[in-house]
Amino acid sequence: MGTRTGNELNRVLDELKRFGFLLESDARLPNVCGIITGQTMKGSWWSHPQAHAIFAINELLADHADVLLTKLISGKVTFVHRQLWRQIYAIGVSREEWQLKGLSAAARLLLRKVDTVGSLPAHELGPSFGVKPGATVRELENRLLIHAEQFHTTSGAHSKLLETWETWAKRTKFRPRPISVARARRTIEQRLDELNEKLDGKGRLPWPRNFL
Questions:
Q1: Residues 30/200, Cβ–Cβ less than 8 Å
Q2: pTM as predicted
Q3: 20 to 30 A Cα–Cα from 39, which one of 120, 183, 193, 212?
Q4: pLDDT of residue 5
């Protein structure tokens, strides 16, 4: 890692620890692209002159011991600092009504499969999960029902490792202290509400805000 990349990573990590989470990219809320470029990002960051630097930092964040990737905010890639893992875990394993109601048949089938085996590479999914298995994976990710992490297959292609939250915790040696799911949701809601109000953001969470 070069000095410049190391400095940028430290700067991003400082902001991540400050807020508890960062989006990969967003027009208003704290995000990796904005920290690196100092600009408001609209649309895809891949066309930005600093796209390679953004990609490198994203990869380093994904591998960092204190960083968890989820689809927490607005269905977007969200980097979550370890300080909020306890809350994310409690929400993920809760299997509340908002997580399960209206799931497609393919998503229910895939969820049962992941629950049974603990972890499953997405590229090994068969036709029973639909013509576009990626959409089925995203359906579970967006409801925080599974943890999904990108990796490179032996052929060099990108895939995702789909895991139960229990399997993820065991793999990362994370031992969550007990917390009620209602309290966990309130903590995340308060963090996001503060940022939305301060920055005129439009971030939303996957559960209904009036959910008890």
A1: no
A2: 0.91
A3: 193
A4: 75
